[in-house]
Design a protein that fits this description.
The protein is an alpha+beta fold. It contains 6 helices and 8 strands; from the N terminus they run E-E-E-H-E-E-E-H-H-E-E-H-H-H. It has 2 domains: 78 residues, Phosphorylase Kinase, domain 1, CATH 3.30.200.20; 124 residues, Transferase(Phosphotransferase), domain 1 (Orthogonal Bundle), CATH 1.10.510. Helix 4 packs across helix 6. The longest helix has 24 residues. The mean pLDDT is 94. Bound molecules: adenosine-5'-diphosphate and magnesium ion. Magnesium ion binds next to loops.
């Protein structure tokens, strides 16, 4: 898609551009080429992640999870046009928040992940960089390029394991409060269905430790 705007994030995986259209703000997410990959693999990865992202954002939304609405997708240049969310990643604001507010946001994070899991979907990259907090403390989840459908208990366990690992590496001093509130939200949302997934999360951790 040919749209002009300011870059707001440039990562290894994507270029995020804020675009003004019809008096509103949108985000154009484009997946650049990786020159070190064989061209055929490069284009198939870019295409599959772009499609996955679009599908993931829409399915999550249909499950009642706040995600930016997708307005257009262009598989010729691997780009997606979606709503701009006027928020900040939890990763950036976590250390500025009181423990109650931070805990409440994590609780909502847990409920969001649980809603995805109940809908048979895993996020694939559930880090605090991919959770946007708006000024009214609403939580939005983004970055569905690694999401998958028809999720098994193993895949859901991996999703929770990734959360735990992300909290350990990015928020080591607050990880206990953050993790316990996230798990609390997850369990409140899923009830008994949460048990096998939590067990699997622990098993995955053990496997990682002793292999
Ligand atoms: N719809 C959006 N609205 C506002 N900011 C966004 C939006 N999508 C992405 N961003 C910003 O760009 C960053 C990177 O986007 P993300 O989709 O996570 O890409 P990546 O796959 O490179 O991690 C996010 O952490 C967020 O700050
Ligand atoms: Mg991201």
């Amino acid at each position: 898609m040919r749209l002009e705007g300011a870059h707001i994030a440039i990562g290894a995986e994507s270029i995020i551009t804020k675009v003004a259209l019809w008096d509103r703000s949108f985000v154009l997410k484009t997946r650049p080429s990786k020159p070190y990959l064989i061209p055929a693999i490069d284009s198939s990865l870019r295409a599959s992640r772009t499609s996955r992202e679009c599908k993931g954002l829409n399915v999550a939304r249909s499950l009642g999870v706040p995600t930016p609405a997708v307005h257009a997708i262009d598989l010729n240049d691997y780009s997606i046009l979606m709503d701009y969310i006027p928020g900040t990643p939890l990763k950036q604001v976590a250390s500025t928040l009181g423990s109650t507010t931070l805990g409440n946001l994590c609780y909502r994070f847990g409920r969001i992940i649980a809603k995805l899991h109940r809908g048979g979907m895993v996020h694939g990259d559930p880090t605090t960089s991919n959770l946007l907090i708006t000024s009214n403390e609403k939580t939005w989840i983004i970055d569905f390029g690694l999401s998958e459908m028809n999720a098994t208990v193993e895949m859901k366990g991996v999703d929770l394991h990734l959360i735990k690992r992300a909290l350990e590496t990015s928020h080591w001093d607050m990880q206990e409060n953050m993790l316990s509130r996230t798990i609390e939200g997850y369990v409140d949302e899923l009830g008994k269905e949460a048990e096998p997934v939590l067990e699997r999360m622990d098993a995955i951790r053990e496997r990682g430790r002793y292999h």
